Amino acid sequence: MTYVAIAAAVAVIALIGIGYMYLATAQVVKPGDTIDIQYTGTLTNGTIFSSNVGQQPFQFTVGAGQVIPGLDSGVLGMKLKQAKTLVIPYNEAYGPVNPSLVVSAPLKAFGNQTVKIGMDVSTIMNGQQLSGIVTSVNTTNATVNFNSPLAGKTLIFNVTILSIHPGNSTA
Asked: Which CATH number fits domain 99-145: 2.70.150.10, 2.40.10.330, 3.30.70.270, 3.40.50.300?
């Protein structure tokens, strides 16, 4: 083999290697990418609170604040088709239980509705639309918890990256 042929072969191999490195790098989740995931969310006791397995992929833009912070940061650096278990503490999920969001309301505030434990309630509090659950009822009042049902809980997500659509990365 001549030196020219060897040099040409080395150049082709180098270009192929650079191409593979680019493809591998392009398939890693970065801030600004829009990704499709399959996930199952469970509590630490194994109770499933949400899953899209067998359904449409869940899509979000990484770093855009569209999901809880622990999920947003947990997918960074994952590769296409990679599966990972993310353990997300409450402070990176729905936050702690806020006692000021557990309120007692007179039954007359519910109008003619029959108020029962487990009943969904919505109201506007401090200019924000809130949904809550009636947690107790007595003869005059109902206690309503307007915290997220996942507040104060560690969440476990089993996530698989199904697709990565590169975005304008700012990091």
From this structure: 2.40.10.330
